[in-house]
Structures are given as C-alpha cells and as structure tokens.
Design a protein that fits this description.
The complex is a heterodimer of chains A (about 220) and B (about 375). By secondary structure, chain A is an alpha/beta fold. Chain A is built from 7 helices and 10 strands. In chain A, the strands form 2 sheets. Chain A has a 6-stranded mixed β-sheet with strand order 6-7-8-3-9-10, sandwiched between helices. A 4-stranded antiparallel β-sheet of chain A has the order 2-1-4-5, with helices on one face. The two termini of chain A are about 20 Å apart. Chain B has 2 domains: about 200 residues, no CATH class; about 160 residues, Barwin-like endoglucanases. Chain B has 12 helices and 11 strands. In chain B, about 55% of the residues lie in helices and about 15% in strands. Chain B has a 6-stranded mixed β-sheet with strand order 4-5-9-6-8-7. In chain B, strands 1, 2, 3, 10 and 11 form a 5-stranded antiparallel β-sheet that branches. The chains are: A alpha/beta (about 220), B alpha+beta (about 375).
Chain lengths: ~220, ~375
C-alpha cells in the first residue's frame, strides 16, 4: 500500500548544523497490517512517520501511496491526502485544551464541510466505542492520560482513514493503560485498518497484534 | 455551495468554542472595543443629527436677512429704510422684524424677545406672552401665570403667560419670549417705524447671491446675511465641536489601537501550538486563516453592533448625556430636546471601515505567518 524508495531527509540543510535524519530508507508497508517502526531515540522513526503520513516531504527519494507518487505534491494536495487517508495519534496526544472531548474529536472533519449532525453522531459513537461516552462533554485537560489517548484515537478515526499512524503511543502510559491501548489496536486491526506505529516499548513491539517490526538505527533500516 | 456553508458554519462553531475558552480576556476586549465604537458613534450620530436638525429649523427661515450697520455694529433699521429697498426683482416679500435681548437678573440668563411675523399661527394678544419651554421650566411658569420684567428704562411690565412653546421646537425656542408688536415697542421704547432687521424671501435660490449683491450696492450701510451662510456657520461650529471631542477621545482611541493590535497580533506559544495541531490533523493553511478571520470578524462585528446600538440609544433616547456640554454648547436656559433619529449610511460605513477592518487584518496577518509553518513541527514537540 505504501512504498518508500531511497528516502533521505535532512534538517537545516546547507547550514553548519545540517543533520541527516534519514539515510536512504526503502521499504513497503502492507495494507490491513500492523507495522511497528522500532529503534532508539534519534533513529529516524518519527521522521519517517511524518514523511509517510504526508506531514513532511523527503529531501530526496520517493513515497508512493497505492501506486501514486506523493513525495513531490504541493502542500495543499498533501493536506487533502492526509485528512482522508491518515489519522494521527501523537505521542503527547496534542489535544486542544479548553475544548471538550467531543469537540476535539470533531476537529479534523471541520474543513471538510460535511453535515454537522452526522459528524457529531459519528464522533459520539466513536467515543462510545472507546468507552468514553460519559466523558464526551468533559474538557480534555480534566481527563486522565489513558482517556486523553482514547480521545486522540477517536479524533484520528473521525474521518474514517485507511491508515492509522501512532507515534510512540505507549510512551506516556503505564503498563495497564498500554495493554488497554493494545486491545484497541487489536480491534482496529480486526476491522481491517492499516496501522503504522513507532515504539521502542517491548510491550508493543513483542505484542502479537503487531504483524511486522522494522528496526531502525541512525536513519537506516537494520 | 452547501459544503462551503457547512464548512463556514463549522469554522464559526469552532471559533466560538475557542473564544469561550478565554472568556475573561475576550469579554474584556469586546467591552473595551465596544466602548470605543460607542464613543465614536455617539459623536458622529449626535453631530450629524444636530446638523440635520439645524438645517430643518433653518429651512423655513428667510433666505436673506438685512442688518444695518453703524460703525461696524448692528444697529436699528430706521423708518423709510424698507421703502428704500424698493422693488428688487426676485424678492417675494420684505418684512421688518422686531427682536431683542433681555437680561433676567433673577436667572442670570438672557432671553430673546421677539414679535412673531404677521400671519404667524401664534401672535399673543396685548399684555400676553408665549414663552419657551426652558424658560417656563426655570421660572416655574404655566399658562395663566403672570411674570414681570423690568425694562431697560426701569419700568416694570407685567405679562400673562398665554402659552408655552411646544417642546419639539426647544432647540431654537428655549429662551424665547413671543409678544405683540405694541408691547415690544413699549418695553424696549422703540419708536414706530424702527425695526431690528429686515427679512427678505427669495423664490429662486440661484438668485439669492445676486439679490444680496444688489442690496449691498443699494444700501452701503447694510449687511445682507444669507441663510446658506448661517447654515455653514452652524456646520463649522458643529464640525469644530466634533473635532474637539474627537481630539479628546484620540488618546483613548490610540490606547485601544495599541491594546487591540497587541491582543490581536500577538500569538501566544499555546496558540502557535494549536495551529500546529490543526495543520497536523488535516487543516489547510487557508482553513486556519479563515478560522482566525472569523475570530477577528466575530469580535469586531459584535463590538461594532454593541457599540453602535448603545450609541444610538445614548444619543436618541438619553439625549447624549455624556457629550451634551461640549457638543450642544453651554447656557443657563439649557434646551431639553430629543433629536430626531438620523443615521447616515456613509458615516456608518466609515466607522465600520476604521474599526472592524483594521482589527480583522490585525488578527489574520500573524496567523498567516504561523499557519505556513510545517505541519510536522507538532510531531517534534
């Protein structure tokens, strides 16, 4: 589904602090499978995730989504692909404080201009399915870490993306909550969703729900 | 089209929820903003309505008033002067007028004594007067009461109040005393044939200036005063007063401009982070800018409406309590009147342009700078 060819990514290119986060990565990610990018901090996992998820463009190399080259598309088109194809769960959850859980879940759908009532119903049912129906009107800063992550997952799923991208999803969770997350992951995989995540948590990497683990170090696959 | 409307509705919905998060800050901003619009709109509405009112009052006044001058000062029209004018083409009617000032030591105020023109609706019988509403209020007079005035020659004259002039005319009749010609001449000891000035009616407005030139040539010791000149004087007085109030307000306006610019254009780290999140979850740069535009537009529109409605009520319902002393002028016999509601579209548009537009721009510009940052920045926080 997603193919990456010789992708390189530099930060501060041409300056004294130039840094190559990715050094020629080539891989392909299968649809409807859970793939984990594993590696120590600074290995380039998150950078690769941002390139695959259309949040950033590679410095060189190609990224293909369902056979279509997306690495050279302008930002507007990347945004379009991002909001229909990918749903993101960030390490810090990145919820908007002061807004309710429900408002946060609905946010990615606002620029699409769909029917508001239908959107609200969809957001409510997502929160219900994640066991957060009773907390939908609560401000996100009042929620626990696990609840915040479930709101972030609901938000990632509200536009019904084919691919769910999660960056270090268990980094801020204890063991019990991490297991809860894996249970949700299993359910999503069961529904046929493609999941791509980064982690160096053995609980995730060694879990049966993960179909494939790609090990990375110094911007390369090892 | 439907999608576009739904999208704008969603953006407005989010903007409102977003504004509600910082209630105190945004309410404070809204109130200060509305106050500035209120002050500016009050001045504009008030002076505009006053100008309009003055114009309406003067609409029925004669086109030319002829005064006689002696040593550069206004003097009485001597007998035979009216006849001297003779027949000037275009003059419909010429009439000697009788009016004068009287200082009332009781109120420490000046009254205007005047004889109504022949044929006027209200011509008091001998021994009777009609008085202005402010005068009646200050002296506690009602129709049927009597009042005495000591004339400049020391004689005491007693008049019965026949009527109090209608409230609607208070702008021009606050200090007015209307009395018959005989009473007037007796009170001021004015011999028959003498007049204060001469009123001339001209049918064709194009001819007014020509007639004034002819009058000045024919009667070199006279001064023709045109109605349009009086109107212009009123206009400049109101403009001058409006200017004074605006200068007084300019400090407040400047302070608000700095405050609003700072509030609108300064992006907090939290706001920048939120923009990053919105971009990462699929918002385009344009969506973020639209959302912020709605934020600026909603705040400034609400402030504009609030301020303008409050100003309208202040001027037309509460007689411009705040600006009365500066804008109306000062007098012992203060006119109490309600202005006819009068809104000038051009003024509304000007005020709108100078209040809503800069604020909306001030909110959008910094957002544009923040919104073009890469969406992956949020992943590296």
């Amino acid at each position: 589904m997603i193919e990456v060819f010789e992708v390189r990514k530099a930060f501060n290119q041409g300056r004294h602090n130039e840094y190559w986060a990715l050094n020629g990565i080539s891989l392909s990610i299968e649809a409807k499978k859970v793939t984990a990018l594993c590696g120590p901090s600074g290995s380039g996992k998150t950078t690769l995730l941002t390139i695959i998820g259309c949040l950033a463009r590679p410095t060189s190399g190609r990224v293909r989504l369902k056979g279509r080259d997306i690495s050279g598309l302008p930002e507007r088109f990347l945004t379009g692909i991002r909001r229909t194809t990918f749903g993101f769960v960030f390490q810090q959850f990145n919820l908007i404080k002061g807004l309710s859980a429900l408002d946060n879940v609905m946010l990615p759908a606002y620029p699409l201009g769909g029917d508001w009532r239908a959107l609200r119903a969809r957001a409510e049912s997502l929160l219900d399915s994640l066991g957060l129906g009773h907390r939908r009107e609560a401000r996100v800063e009042w929620l626990s870490g696990g609840e915040q992550q479930r709101v972030a997952i609901a938000r990632a799923l509200v536009n019904d993306p084919e691919v769910l991208i999660a960056d270090e999803p268990t980094a801020n969770l204890d063991t019990a909550l991490s297991k809860e997350f894996l249970a949700i992951l299993e359910r999503l995989a069961g529904q046929g969703r493609t999941v791509l995540l980064t982690s160096h948590d053995p609980l995730v990497v060694e879990s049966a729900v993960v179909d494939r683990v790609i090990n990375m170090r110094d911007g390369q696959i090892v | 089209m439907n999608t576009w409307i739904e999208k704008q509705k969603a953006l407005i919905d989010f903007t409102l929820a977003s504004l509600a998060r910082r209630k105190i800050r945004n309410l404070g901003l809204l109130l200060v903003y509305a106050l500035i619009v209120f002050l500016l709109a009050s001045v504009m509405l008030f002076t505009h309505a006053l100008r309009k009112e003055a114009g309406q009052v003067l609409a029925n006044s004669p086109e030319i008033i002829l005064q006689r001058l002696v040593a550069g000062r206004h003097d009485l029209i001597p007998p035979g002067y009216l006849e001297k004018i003779g027949r000037i083409r275009g003059v419909q009617k010429k009439q000697g007028r009788l009016w004068g000032y009287y200082y009332d030591a009781v109120l420490k105020a000046n009254y205007t004594f005047m004889v109504p023109q022949p044929g006027a609706l209200l011509v008091p019988d001998p021994g009777k007067i009609a008085i202005g509403a402010a005068l009646a209020r200050m002296r506690g007079l009602v129709p049927g009461n009597t009042i005495s005035f000591r004339s400049y020659s020391g004689k005491l004259f007693t008049f019965e109040v026949a009527s109090v002039l209608p409230h609607q005319s208070e702008l021009v009749s606050a200090d007015l005393v209307l009395l018959g010609e005989e009473d007037f001449r007796a009170f001021f000891e004015l011999p028959p044939g003498h007049y204060t000035d001469i009123a001339l009616s001209v049918a064709n407005p194009q001819e007014v200036r020509n007639i004034a030139t002819k009058l000045a040539a024919q009667l070199p010791d006279s001064r023709p005063i045109l109605r349009e000149e009086v109107l212009r004087t009123y206009e400049s007085i109101f403009n001058w007063r409006e200017g004074i109030v605006l200068v007084l307000l300019s400090g407040a306006i400047l302070a608000f401009a700095i405050f609003a610019w700072e509030k609108a254009s300064g992006l907090s780290a939290e706001e920048k982070r939120e923009i990053g999140i919105l971009k990462a979850i699929g918002w385009e740069t344009g969506d973020v800018i639209k959302m912020k535009f709605w934020e600026g537009a909603l705040v400034s529109l609400a402030a504009f409406l609030l301020g303008y409605i409050a100003a309208y009520l202040h001027v037309f319902r509460f007689s411009s309590l705040l600006f009365e002393p500066v804008l109306k002028g000062w007098a012992v016999l203060y006119p109490r009147f309600e202005l006819t509601p009068e809104v000038d579209g051009f003024q509304v548009a000007t005020l709108f342009l100078f209040t809503v537009f800069p604020y909306a721009v001030a909110t959008v510009v910094p957002i544009w700078r923040a919104a073009i940052t890469d969406p992956d920045a949020v992943m590296r926080v």
